[in-house]
Design a protein that fits this description.
The strands form 6 sheets. The protein has a 9-stranded mixed β-sheet. The chain has a 7-stranded mixed β-sheet with strand order 17-14-18-19-21-20-25, sandwiched between helices. By secondary structure, the protein is an alpha/beta fold. A hairpin with a 2-residue loop joins strand 7 and strand 8. The chain is globular, with a radius of gyration of 36 Å. Helices cover 40% and strands 14% of the residues. It has 32 helices and 27 strands.
């Protein structure tokens, strides 16, 4: 034992008892004042005590005693003769009142904050911010109180406490965060806002940088206003601080390791962001205003304030790639598209936490409060299959909705940002005319996101100087607001005056910056800062190889039997002790027999083989939708559940060495946001078979905006390719109006210029070849698949193993029964489930002069294949019938009959057999459904005339 250890043991055994307490206390006081004043052994002992306590260095106890003496003068008293001090009842109540006041400011201080540059409306009364509400009066202002958990001195006068609280919580920044239940997050925010006293404290260089970006924000708008009078540009004026906000966000994010940022925003300020943040050539923008700019490639194009852009910006942390997403007039629909794009970029970087990719969404106040996709996107934020590491939301709060409406008409809540509370996102309301406080809020928001990987909102309260657009006259409906706006200096002017008073600028320096910026625009120079070119980014997706593909290019989608059997052998292996549900075990046993050729193939087996072989070919698969893991109709079972402990296993993840190559997600109960997310993902991942599956095809109604604005028109408007695949269960089986139709007619109405594919496969093999074709072809087009329900287990809707090992997807399928085509007098054309109803009826009735042909791809319509078949095999048929289950005004009839007419030969005539036109997709009564189904089948087969 060392001498030191012996000393410490001796201390513990003899000296540390009551008789020596005073002596040891004196030594400890001396140690705390000057550690070198005590002997080395005692010094080591006291240091060991501090380390074991884990609280850092103690304070001299004499100071504690003096504090107790002060407390005594302020109302402390001795209790029960035991020498223990406590507050008197009155003093204790005052102290509790102070702590309640502090808490009230944390909860509601933002309601008294100086947030509105126009001071349009009186602030709502907030009684619990008044000290009197808590029983505190003038006589208490100079009394000293404990500050509790406030990040400040331990004791302050009430006057000092109130001044601090007003500065932090009721100045130009209103922090709304006490709805967060996580204590760590709340304390983090409190430390940042209270510890800084709510003061930005920008350096002189930073102030000049902020001002320079305000000059740019105002400069481009004034230039456009003078050069292109009356043209729409959705000016940012009034919300100019957005440009320094984004500049700061990019530079700070780069410092913290962000390598890619995806921006989503609607119209207001978009042109400003393109020029001053992303570095778009001003000459290109001016050409667009003059109507002489044509983008490369074909297509219809879009208005200039919908267009996207991308560039690379130098930051202190290295280059950052920034992409501004294309956005239609459905303002907030871009939100999930941005999130999906970010998720795809994260996958490429193997960035599971969102540390390298940052989504930023810029909203308008009325749209943020009013559009449901905002809520749906928030609900995606922490869901496993859609997580992107948190989004920075910026609300350009105009305080006026669309053209004329004030907040009383555009929402029912005090703030437009209430929806963000569903994910407990902190909300920082900030006065848009205080650019330094905007910079403070930006740093606070970004640091929160990067610390906790959660969404955060900056609500920048500002105004619109020119109304909804530059041709609008807002004063006609908002006279008081626009009287104030006309008389108010711009943000740049206000900040220039502030900086001049602070001595930051010389006499003419600020105006020289304004002139320099305008001269740069006149010279068509790029005016964004830190733009760099020639950056090599290994994580950029290569889309060039998909622009030259041909629709009619043949592709070999077959694989060998040996490969299929080897694949099934991999899928057969379960973790040790994994206990399956008996029904699932039976399905897996059937699939083993299918791979061996002992059973006909069903749809679940064919789909699994398609995914597995694509994975082996080097592609990835992402499938999301409600019940997608199991399959709504109990057929897929891509995710297996252990009956013993509830754990899960996904066999397809064992096909490659990277389990994340196959992802299947049971999504939240959303169509619009989830489909938008998957579209965004597909536009960033050309080598992933990205699939969204509707629980029933009818549910796609809830995502119609995504279909109309992005899926059908994205390539024509913006040149954006996407291989997104939609699975829409479709078929009339007596389940009523909302579980029958995937609204096929709507997709066919959108078909033009070979923009999308619409397929109705009728066999498992067709489904298999179609999915493989989607990835193996050298182009990317959205694929709309009307998938089966009852056919999943139909005795006739099966395939053989040979069907997978030879052939390819057939756009038209000829008659399969041994009927002499030369003797046929009637040809029935159809698609989907009704084929099997027709086939069974014809066989039952023994109709040998009726042929049934299936159209498996409705768009692009296979006119060449059908015409060749009709002319070579059925020239003698005089009657050609299109048969469908849907009502006449729905389904494929109206969008397809002209294609069929082009395929007829001789004097053949085309007829319709199906349900009559109807307002509802289907009847609600099973008996009536079956009667209608029998009638349309009989009419198609011509039973009455045979």
């Amino acid at each position: 034992m060392s001498a030191k250890d012996g000393f410490l043991q001796k201390l513990r055994s003899s000296y540390l008892h009551g008789a020596n307490a005073g002596y040891i206390e004196g030594l400890y006081e001396a140690y705390l004042t000057d550690p070198e004043s005590v002997e080395a052994d005692w010094r080591d002992y006291f240091r060991a005590l501090e380390r074991s306590a884990g609280n850092g260095q103690d304070v001299p106890h004499s100071q504690v005693r003096k504090r107790f003496e002060r407390y005594g003068r302020a109302g402390w008293r001795r209790r029960g003769g035991a020498g223990v001090a406590e507050l008197s009842p009155d003093a204790a109540e005052k102290q509790a009142a102070v702590l309640r006041l502090i808490n009230s400011y944390r909860f509601r201080g933002h309601q008294a904050a100086d947030l509105d540059p126009l001071q349009l409306r009186p602030k709502p009364p907030v009684p619990d911010l008044d000290p009197a509400f808590h029983g505190l009066g003038e006589e208490d202002l100079d009394e000293t109180f404990n500050t509790g958990s406030l990040y400040a001195e331990p004791r302050m006068t009430l006057r000092e406490i109130i001044a601090l609280l007003q500065q932090v919580y009721s100045g130009a920044l209103g922090s709304e965060y006490m709805h967060i239940t996580d204590t760590e997050q709340k304390r983090w925010i409190q430390q940042r806002v209270e510890g800084s006293r709510g003061q930005p404290r920008l350096s002189t260089a930073r102030k000049k940088e902020v001002f320079e970006r305000l000059v740019a924000a105002e400069g481009i708008e004034k230039y456009l206003h003078s050069k292109y009078v009356g043209q729409k540009r959705f000016s940012l004026e009034g919300g100019d601080a957005l440009i320094p906000l984004l500049h700061d966000l990019i530079q700070r994010a780069g410092t913290q390791g962000i390598k890619e940022m995806v921006l989503g925003m609607a119209h207001r300020g978009r042109l400003n962001v393109l020029i001053n943040i992303l570095g778009k050539d001003p000459g290109d923008l001016f050409a667009e205003f003059e109507g002489r700019y044509q983008r490369d490639g074909n297509g219809s194009g879009d208005v200039k304030y919908h267009m996207g852009f991308s560039s690379d910006v130098q930051t202190p942390g290295g280059p950052m790639h920034i992409a501004l997403a294309f956005n239609p007039s459905h303002l907030e629909i871009v939100n999930p598209v941005v999130e999906g794009s970010c998720r795809a970029r994260m996958r490429r970087r193997r960035d599971d936490e969102g540390g390298q990719v940052l989504p930023v969404l810029i909203h308008g106040d009325a749209a943020f409060a009013g559009q449901g996709v905002v809520m749906e996107t928030f609900q995606l934020s922490q869901a496993r299959g859609f997580y992107t590491g948190g989004t920075v939301h910026v609300v350009i709060n105009n305080q006026i909705g669309f053209t004329t409406s004030n907040p009383l008409d555009t929402r029912s809540s005090l703030y437009c940002t209430e929806v963000a509370k569903i994910v407990q996102a902190p909300i920082f309301h900030v006065n848009g005319d205080d650019p330094e406080m905007v910079a403070f809020a930006t740093a606070l928001a970004l640091d929160y996101r990067n610390t906790f990987r959660r969404d955060v909102v900056i609500d920048m309260i500002c105004y619109r100087r020119h109304g909804h657009n530059e041709a609008d006259e807002p004063a006609a409906t908002q006279p008081m607001m626009y009287q104030k706006i006309r008389n108010r200096p711009t943000v740049r002017q206000l900040y220039a005056q502030q900086l001049a008073e602070e001595g930051v600028f010389g006499a003419n320096e600020a105006e020289e910056m304004v002139g320099d910026y305008r001269a740069a625009l006149e010279n068509r120079e790029v005016v964004a800062t830190n733009i760099i070119t020639g950056v090599r980014n290994e994580f950029v997706a290569d889309w060039h190889r998909f622009f030259d593909g041909c629709w009619h290019e043949s592709v070999d989608t077959a694989v060998s039997q040996e490969r299929l059997r080897d694949l099934q052998a991999i899928l057969d292996v379960l973790p040790e002790g994994f206990e399956l549900n008996p029904r699932v075990a039976a399905i897996r046993e059937s699939r083993r027999k299918m791979a061996a050729g002992a059973l006909p193939l069903d749809w679940g087996f064919a789909e699994t083989m398609a995914y597995g072989t694509l994975l082996q070919d080097g592609y990835r698969v992402r499938l999301s939708g409600q019940d997608s893991g199991r399959g709504t109709f109990f057929h897929r079972h891509a995710v297996l559940h252990n009956m013993a402990d509830g754990s899960t296993f996904t066999p397809l993840q064992d096909v490659t060495t990277e389990p994340k190559d196959f992802v299947v997600i049971d999504s939240l109960l959303s169509e619009e946001a989830v489909l938008g997310f998957e579209y965004g993902y597909a536009t960033s991942e050309p080598d992933t078979l990205t699939i969204w599956e509707a629980q029933f095809g009818d549910f796609v109604n809830g995502a119609q905006v995504v279909i109309d604005q992005f899926i059908a028109a994205g390539e024509a408007k913006w040149g954006r390719l996407s291989g997104l695949t939609l699975f829409l269960p479709h078929g009339y089986e007596g389940q009523g109006p909302e579980h029958s139709s995937a609204r096929l007619e709507r997709f066919l109405q959108l078909c033009a210029e070979e923009n999308i594919q619409v397929c109705v496969p009728s066999t498992p093999a067709q489904f298999y070849h179609m999915l493989r074709r989607q990835m193996l072809r050298r182009f990317r087009k959205p694929l709309i698949v009307l998938t089966p329900k009852s056919l999943l287990r139909h005795k006739l809707s099966t395939s053989s193993l040979d069907d997978l090992t030879r052939g390819s997807f057939s756009t038209v399928i000829d008659e399969i029964d041994p009927i002499d085509p030369q003797q046929c007098k009637r040809v029935v054309l159809c698609a989907g489930k009704v084929y099997y109803d027709l086939l069974e009826a014809r066989r039952r009735l023994g109709l040998e002069k009726v042929a049934i042909l299936r159209i498996e791809q409705l768009y692009p319509f296979p006119e060449g294949s059908l015409k060749e078949l009709m002319s070579q095999c059925y020239p003698g048929a005089r009657v050609v019938v299109w048969c469908q289950e849907e009502p006449k005004n729905q389904g494929a009839w109206y969008s397809t009959n002209h294609h069929i007419l082009n395929c007829l030969v001789g004097d053949q005539r085309l007829h319709y057999a199906g349900r009559p036109a109807a307002a509802s997709p289907a009847v609600g009564y099973p008996k009536l459904h079956h009667e209608q189904q029998r009638e349309l089948v009989d009419r198609a087969l011509g039973v009455e005339s045979v």
